[in-house]
Design goal:
This protein is an alpha+beta fold. The protein is built from 17 helices and 18 strands. The longest helix is centred in the C-terminal third of the chain and has 22 residues.
């Protein structure tokens, strides 16, 4: 889709009045209309969606954000919140009409306070995950969520999508890390609940509505997050195994032997390893021989357990060899080698993109059924769609499967994705639902999966989502067209849901 730069400076009525008021509120630093500055943020990370925007707004604090949202409500201007723009489902990309305001939270990047005794940090929504890791480390603490995009992903985006990552096995998703939230609601009011309480029975836990809501119910401005003691030592293991069921048995064995020290357990097939080695010329295979499946295992300890950690891991592996769960294994000799192991895992998606078009599916099934699902789904998809290759990798311990279907060689990307690719995704999601799984495990719904959620979701749950959305955002101005499917008895979204600028509210409204 071509971005029409001239649309950025059109004086549409009443958008011209709105932009004048927004400029007066935010100043030239906070309201950006230069097409060259706005354009990089109009396309999603995967390059599948490109939209247009009335302008890019970047408030500097919660008060400015609140005043801006009140202004948007008055002029009926839809807003699309955006953090690091590293999402996978087009959830932070405006539509093609050019009437929506792109709302950047990147200036809300202050780490406001770290309470070492309480092991908590309060920070703005625009704080980058890697920055949070570095700041916590200065206090001998850590934030127990990480992912490949840590250099661009922001706290607000992680909360809005309930992000997962590679440490969910032990620490849970972002929902588990959030102790308190400050958010601006659709009318501009500020919901402030940053102070956490261990016990609080004053009705609904309202912050939980905002976590995972993808900016459709409110705009996260700040959060109080859980911190943990820093790691004193870690052991990273690369193990080759004969099958995914055997890898699952290895996981259960490791959990029994290591308990809470087991922090990560990732699996990938040999084909993924080969693709990464082809992409990264300096990368080396961790093991001498090829194996059908590989497991990347991370075990950690605090100061109290650091001295015994290596011995516990070696004992676990020795027993695994005797039980036939491991064919070969390598223990990282130092931090550089440990990071090299993880770089292989984090490079699977870029390596896949280098091979050509693919339909990526971030799905989950019951943990104990993940090996059986992969063994069933891969041959079904490859048989129904000759020339494709289906691969699965991911977080074995939490049932999250990255199930990707690579296109046949030589296809036109756009044509294949719109045709066979879309049909393939339908079939994959049908299989997931048949296995009592979820079509979105950690990346959200956005606009990519909204129609599939409408097609496959529980009607009662979908109607509850619509009612909550209508109650908290009656004008439909917060991230319209994302996450919440419209009712099937309507042919299109309401004007507000489609992001159109309506007449401003009266002064007495």
């Amino acid at each position: 889709m071509t971005v029409h730069k001239q649309a950025m400076t059109e004086k549409l009525s009443p958008s011209g009045d709105f932009l004048d008021a927004a400029l007066a509120l935010l100043g030239p630093r906070g309201l950006i209309r230069d097409p060259d500055l706005v354009e990089p943020w109009l396309t999603d990370w995967r390059g599948r969606y490109t939209g247009r925007a009335l302008a890019l707004a970047a408030p500097g604090d919660t008060a400015e954000l609140s005043a801006l949202i009140k202004l948007c409500a008055h002029y009926r201007v839809a807003v699309v919140p955006q953090g690091g723009n590293s999402g996978m489902v087009g959830g932070a990309t405006p539509d093609a009409q050019g009437h929506q305001l792109l709302l950047s939270l990147r200036r809300l990047n202050q780490i406001k306070a770290i309470d070492v005794n309480a092991r908590q940090v309060t920070c703005g929504a625009g704080v980058v995950l890697q920055t949070l890791h570095e700041e916590a480390a200065k206090h001998d603490l850590r934030f127990a969520l990480t992912l490949g995009g840590k250099g661009s992903a922001t706290v607000g985006g992680l909360i809005s999508t309930n992000a997962g990552g590679t440490q969910v096995l032990r620490h849970g998703t972002m929902r588990k890390q959030v102790l308190g939230v400050e958010a601006v609601l659709a009318d501009g009011s500020i919901f402030s609940a940053l102070t956490p309480l261990k016990k609080d029975n004053r009705g609904f836990d309202l912050k939980q509505l905002l976590i995972g809501s993808e900016g459709t119910l409110g705009v996260v401005a700040a959060a109080t997050l859980r911190l943990l003691p820093a790691i004193a030592d870690r052991v990273v293991v690369w193990a080759g195994t004969s099958s995914l069921p055997t890898a699952r048995a290895l996981l259960l064995h490791a959990e029994a032997a290591l308990g809470d020290a087991l922090e990560g357990f990732e699996v990938l097939p040999q084909s993924c390893l080969e693709a990464v080695l082809e992409l990264l010329p300096d990368a080396r295979a961790p093991l001498a021989d090829a194996h059908p499946w590989h497991a990347l295992i991370e075990v950690v300890a605090d100061r109290a357990g650091a001295a015994a950690l290596a011995g516990r891991v070696e004992a676990m592996l020795s027993e695994a060899f005797e039980a036939g769960l491991v064919a070969d294994a390598a223990i990282a000799a130092n931090e550089a080698q440990a990071e090299a192991f993880w770089l292989i895992r984090e490079s699977i998606s870029p390596a896949e993109r280098a091979q050509g078009p693919a339909m990526q599916h971030d799905i989950s099934v019951p943990v104990e059924r993940m090996p059986d699902f992969v063994a069933t789904a891969v041959p079904i998809i490859e048989a129904h769609w000759p020339g494709t290759r289906a691969i699965a990798f991911g977080h074995l311990g939490d049932g999250n499967v990255h199930f990707h279907v690579i296109a046949p060689p030589g296809v036109d990307r756009a044509v294949w994705e719109a045709g066979d690719g879309t049909a393939i995704s339908h079939e994959v999601y049908d299989l997931v639902v048949a296995w009592h799984g979820s079509i979105s495990a950690e990346h959200g719904i956005g606009q990519t999966k909204r129609d599939e959620l409408a097609r496959l979701g529980d009607p009662v749950a979908l109607e509850l989502m619509r009612r909550v959305k209508a109650a908290l955002d009656p004008l439909g101005l917060l991230n319209p067209g994302k996450l919440v499917p419209p009712r099937t008895d309507t042919l299109a979204d309401t004007p507000a849901d489609s992001g159109a600028i309506l007449a401003p509210a009266s002064a007495n409204a």
